[in-house]
Amino acid sequence: MLVLVLSGMGPLDQISINYTSAIPKQQALGDIDALERDYSWIVRDARVTVASSSTPGARPTTSSVFRTAPLPNSREGTLPLEPFVSVLRRFGSIRVNYLLAMPFEFRGLKEFESEYVKIDLKRGGNSYQYTVRVKGRDFKRLGLPLTEPKAREPARAGTSAAARTLIIVGLALAGALVAYLIAAVVAGRRNQRG
Fold first, then answer.
1. How confident is the model at residue 86 (pLDDT cuts 50, 70, 90)?
2. pLDDT value of residue 193
3. Sign of the torsion angle spanned by Cα atoms 137, 138, 141, 143
4. Distance between CA 30 and CA 39 in Å, rounded?
């Protein structure tokens, strides 16, 4: 499953959803309808085609093409991934490739893993290719972050019991040594007077 998003070539983005095999036209149109319905996308010029390759043994494949309002958020530097993953989650592997024909300062999601998906990003020039492995399909929406989640601070390692015991013994010995030195100084002064 490959989704291509061509953005920045005009007022609308061009989206292509390429299936790895031939699927019914109504199913491909249903995926577009779900993007429109569930994510309030305004879809224009939707077309679905089934093509067969001239390569011997190759299977026919279905692809859909449509246009929608620009998906990249250049102000925030983010690229939406959630709509494609949620609608196409029935496939085990989804690649979403954003090709941007405009200046873009990327600050979006790079890696993410949950019980449902594992996501990795490969960047090259103005191409941002997400590879999504769907681990569990029993979700409607993932709630994917648009930006990289802040790294958690590693938990501070506590002092072990053995280390605490050594510290206590060390402090006790240091205290005893200080007390001995004070007693020796006091005794030495008494001996000098006497």
1. very high
2. 62
3. negative
4. 14
Question: Considering only CA atoms, which of 50, 114, 41, 104 is closest in space to residue 78?
Answer: 104
Q: Which residues, 6+ apart, have CB-to-CB distance to 18 below 8 Å?
A: 1, 2, 3, 4, 61, 62, 63
**So what's the pLDDT on residue 57?**
73
Answer whether 72's CB lies under 8 Å from 109's CB. no
Q: Are 114 and 84 in contact (CB under 8 A)?
A: no
User: How many other CB atoms are there within 10 angstroms of residue 111's CB atom?
Assistant: 11
Give the contacts of 133 (CB within 8 A, at least 6 positions apart). Answer: 92, 93, 117, 118, 119
pTM of the model: 0.73
Q: What torsion, rounded to 10 degrees, do the Cα atoms 84, 87, 92, 98 define?
A: -10
For residues 95, 101, 103 and 107, what is the CA-based torsion angle, rounded to 10 degrees?
-10
Dihedral angle of Cα 187, 188, 193, 194, to the nearest 10 degrees: 70
- Closest Cα partner for 64 from 17, 118, 113? 17
Separation between Cα atoms, residue 174 and residue 182, nearest integer Å: 12
